[in-house]
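Async update (no meeting this week)

Hi team, since we skipped the sync, here's where things stand on the single-chain job. The sequence we agreed to prioritize is pasted below, unchanged from the tracker. I ran it this morning and attached the output directly underneath so nobody has to dig for it. Comments welcome in thread, and please keep replies under the output.
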Amino acid sequence: MKQKWALIPDNTDVLITHGPPKDILDLVPRPAGFHAGCQDLYNRIQQLPNLKLHVFGHLHMNHAIVKLGNTFFVNASVCTESYEPINKPIVVRLR
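Output:
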């Protein structure tokens, strides 16, 4: 995926991907707990100085928002791990 992530423009301020970057809202508790995010995506994000918001889903059990530096990371998965569509929307206000 490294070549695909390299296509993200350097001046990106909002990024939407299917899955998370490594170590950000990507913990999978079973079987033994591991981080399932993409290391290459994480590396590319570190090169985006204007990034304000990264939205993704895929790992349903990690529905949440965190702010790291100047960037909000949102796992916006609507469904729970058992595919019940009950997760509430997450609202982010960018200034």
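Quick observations from my side:
Residues 2-75 form one domain.
The beta strands are 14-16, 27-28, 34-35, 53-56, 64-68, 71-75.
Reply here if anything looks off.
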